[in-house]
Amino acid sequence: MLNVFSKLTKGQFFSFKLLIIGIVVLILLFAPSYLSRYYLYLVTLILVTVLFATSLNIPLGYGGLLVLHQATFYGVGAYAFAIFLKQGTLPILPASLIAPLIAAAFACFIGWICVRLRGLYFSFLTLAMGQLVWAIIYRWYNFTGGDDGIHAIPVPDFLRSGSSVFYTTLIVVLISLLLIYIIVKSPYGLTLQAVRDNPQRCESVGINIRNHRLIAFVMGGFFAGVAGVLFVLLERSVAPPMLFWTKSVEVLIMVLLGGMFTFLGPAFGAVVVIGMMTFFGIFTEYWLLFLGSIKILLLLFLPQGVLGYIEEMMAKSAKKIEKGEERGYAQG
Amino acid sequence: MDFLTLLPDFSTMTSQVFIGLSRAMILFMVAVGLTVSIGVLRVINFANGTFYMLGAFTAWSIAMWVGGTAGFWVALLVAPLVVSVLGLVVEAGLLRRLYNRPRLLQLLLTYAVVLLFNDITKIIWGVDFKTIEVPLKGFVTLFSNVSLPSYNLILLASGPLVAFGLWFFTNHTMVGKITRATATDREMVDALGINSKKIFAIVFMLSCYLAGLGGALIAPTTNIVVGMGITILVNAVLVVVVGGLGNIWGTFLASIIFGVGESFGLLIAPRFAIVFPFAIATVLLILRPTGIMKSVW
Amino acid sequence: MKRNRRMKSILVLSLIFIIAFTLVGGCAKPTAPAPSPAPAPEKSDGPAQEIRFDRNIKIGIVDTYTGPPTVYTYDARDGFTLAAKEINAEGIHGAKIEFVTRDEEFKPDKALSWARELITREGVDVLCGFMSSASALAVSEYVKDEKVPTVVWMAQTEKITGEAGHRYIFHVIPNTRMSGRAAARYLADLPYTRFALVGSDFEFGHAIINTFWKTMTELNPKAEKVVETFWPVGEPDFTPYISAIRAAKPEVVVAAPGGADQIPLTKAIGAAKLAEEMVVYLHIGTDHAGLVALGQEAPEGMYGSSPYHYYYPDTPENKAFVEKFHAEYGRYPNFAGFNGYITAHLIAEAYRKAGSLDTEAFIDAFEGLSINSPVGQVTMREYDHQLIQPFFIGKTVKDPGKDYLIATDIVMISGEDAIPPLEEIKKIRGE
């Protein structure tokens, strides 16, 4: 089906991708003028989730760290922002900057402990500590509202309309994605990928593996926190389920469905999963059945993710990647 | 706080220990199936929670069908077998394709199975609350101030029995030894002319059997509902990891640490009781980064 | 290998199709679709009825249809459906009720998302549902901005009509304040003074116990609290709590278990034969959903409450409702079924009274509205939008004709007695 690309060179690929991204951004720029209110909201929610999923991909796809509980930082960012606004301790601008930093600080602490562990033990320690944070937020009534959550978060009037939230989200998400792109293509990002692919060799040439991984983990936490802040802007409400472990698994599925070795894969996965949830949620009560089956099919047949698959097809037909050079999976 | 006044009290301490132990055994019954699948198949099987749930539901159906107190005992024998057959279907249809895949993919696929079976269970069994009559009524007084429901004694006894049985199976039976060999080096086992595919299927059935057994055993004490596996699953996974991946006795020990730790935690800070299992897991993983007992990996 | 690749291509293409379909839908419908027009007038139209609605009334239901609470939410939905059938047979100024349901999985963010979808895409006139208190509170703030009337029929938190109350939110279930007060009124008449207070350790359990104790000490200053303990939600083993209660030697145990703890707690009480030693009162303890699940295992002589029992009161109105429900679904309604049923009738009656599809007119009509429900008259209190409805407390007993226990000696606490006085709500709202 993708024979069209067979005659493209690598450089042409890149410009083709840029073209597609440009068109998508352009379409998005005018979204409020042609989308109905609900779909504008849905697109905003997808944008927030896109950033959330991409934030996970920094440690997961580029760092090879199987982070099982990314929702912790999403939730901490959202809760920090919500508490600042609700208690009126900080105006909205500094609050929106400090909340992701708090998420990053959590990531720094959790990461510092976790990166000492290897493989699955690392993964499950992130799970345990994430659940610890969840349990505390779930129980600490006076500070976090406990199981009822925090609602009626006061957001300034100019940020209350659908289109202003949309544009704020769009701008923040685009800037964040650009930053993440710059980071993963920087010398640091390339070293990180080298650490992922061959930690032993990297260590022998004097690269501090732990530090590289910790930085990736913290940056993932920071951008998840930014997504959390955007979520609060959009919904003006937070509750504990947003940092329960099932939320993290949902995002992991997004990343994997989209393709974790492509930059835009997680974003694509977020669009797919939220789109499907809405689609099936409206049409059937047994939407879990459909969603579950589709996820199983996709994961089984497209383990490299949808975007990963498309890229692979392009690359294969352009004969740019020789056999055996395919990038490996996250080490476990 | 009042725990200082409680500490010297011998009977409170012992009763707390026993309460913790029965919690621990409930946890262990869920975790033991996971240990087997992690230890041999090297698959982190989130669907284990689903098989646990299915064990409880199947036990309910059988107990209702047979009726009376005898119904439960029949269910306890039959339900795990039904679940293990179901496990075989899932293994042949899905899991078999996963053994050589990346770990993350296995994890997410088994999670998708959880979602799928939640809806299937809802379609088959409906949404009404269900419960099985406790087969053993009455209380047993252990010390002056400590009395336990008789049924809890069965739970307390079943944990060590299952652990011992598994240990005996893997160390002293032919199939068990082959299983261990398969876990260590699958290719070598294949080269010796043993069908490792078959071994894997047997092991997966065993892990489903154990999950189903756990579900059936716990069914009389709880409310059998869709999603009952989700809450306890995280704790069970953490127990397995903390105990040392695939180590039966490690899982056993970790269950006891979790259960007793939580019941003492309840004395110290009841409001934050749900925090304790995760705090314990965090501390233990920091102290012993590869689990408290030797992992089979 | 080739087949495999084709399979992959098909998967990718169908995915892209689904996404495109979902997203393009947004451009195709720039405004929310209006509900379908009302059917043509029938000739039997009374001459007095001059107002005619030009379209049907659309109602959106957001509730938990995944997991344990479904035993209640299905009943609520079915009760609502049944009432909608009755209403549509009659019509509301020529219009009918249409409704759609959405599953929020007990997650507030999902609830909000679906509430938005129903209001801005489906264009519903009224929103209903909400099992989870957190979801109800989150959506409450949203509909306040959207100005869409919303009826909460399952979440019991007192905040909905208390501090978080506003013009667009209505509560059709005895809230935690009402339940606590009703229990205190009932138990204060008994000649006992030593109380044990226990509950599930979350907002709900604490709220009921606190109100109960506050009211109890007002009604009976001699009341003494001998032990107070809360267990984590989902507690697997109630033995320690039963032992602690026994050790304190109370005369009355008041328990407020959350939904998930109800069954195991009742079992533990039965196993320990606690109800034979002292008065044990369980919030929602005699509701049909729990008792039918426990079968013969439920303890006899245990006190419990429910906003509704299908066998009480023994009036023609109630019998008619129960018979219809049973004929339609083959089971008896639990209290959620009753809530769903009266919610639909309340909404329909408010529209009839308003004579207009306008939201503000609907709310004005809804405030202070009284209807005859299967348990007698219920009234929507004008000030805080809390339904004044009776609360029933009884004692479990074996019934020879049934394989489960029922409540007997049921006492009705009238809605006026149970509902907190206006001054209290005004004080909470700082007015």
Protein architecture, described:
The complex is a heterotrimer of chains A (332), B (297) and C (431). With 332 residues, chain A is mainly α. Helices cover 73% and strands 0% of the residues of chain A. Chain A has helices at 10-29, 31-34, 37-62, 71-87, 92-114, 119-139, 141-144, 162-185, 187-197, 199-204, 209-235, 245-258, 265-283, 287-301, 306-317. The longest helix of chain A has 27 residues, at 209-235. Residues 320-332 of chain A have low confidence and may be disordered. With 297 residues, chain B is mainly α. The longest helix of chain B is centred in the first third of the chain and has 32 residues, at 10-41. Residues 1-8 of chain B have low confidence and may be disordered. Chain C has 431 residues and is an alpha/beta fold. In chain C, a hairpin with a 6-residue loop joins strand 14 and strand 15. The B-C interface holds B 15-16, 19, 22-23, 26, 118, 122, 127-131, 133-134, 137-139, 145, 147-149, 152, 218, 221-223, 225-228, 231, 263, 266, 270-271, 273-274 and C 66-68, 70-71, 74, 201, 229-234, 236-237, 239-240, 243, 260, 262-264, 267-268, 271-272, 289-290, 292-297.
How would you summarize this macromolecular structure in one to three sentences?
The complex is a heterotrimer of chains A (332), B (297) and C (431). Chain A has a domain of 208 residues.
Give a quick set of tags describing it.
heterotrimer; A: 332 residues; mainly alpha; globular; C: 431 residues; alpha/beta; Rossmann fold; 2 domains; seven-stranded mixed β-sheet; 15 strands
Topology:
The complex is a heterotrimer of chains A (332), B (297) and C (431).
Chain A: H1 10-29, H2 31-34, H3 37-62, H4 71-87, H5 92-114, H6 119-139, H7 141-144, H8 162-185, H9 187-197, H10 199-204, H11 209-235, H12 245-258, H13 265-283, H14 287-301, H15 306-317
Helix pairs in contact in A: 3-8, 3-11, 3-12, 3-13, 4-5, 4-11, 5-11, 8-9, 8-11, 9-11, 12-13, 13-14
Chain B: H1 3-6, H2 10-41, H3 48-66, H4 68-93, H5 103-125, E1 139-141, E2 147-149, H6 150-172, H7 174-184, H8 186-191, H9 196-218, H10 228-243, H11 248-268, H12 276-287
Antiparallel strand pairs in B: 1-2
Chain C: H1 2-28, E1 57-63, H2 70-90, E2 97-103, H3 108-122, E3 126-129, H4 133-146, E4 150-152, E5 169-171, H5 176-188, E6 194-200, H6 203-219, E7 224-231, H7 239-248, E8 252-256, H8 262-272, H9 274-277, E9 279-282, H10 288-294, E10 303-306, H11 316-329, H12 335-354, H13 359-366, E11 370-373, E12 376-380, E13 387-388, E14 391-398, E15 405-413, H14 415-418, H15 422-428
Parallel strand pairs in C: 1-2, 1-3, 3-4, 4-5, 6-7, 6-8, 8-9, 9-10
Antiparallel strand pairs in C: 10-14, 11-12, 12-13, 14-15
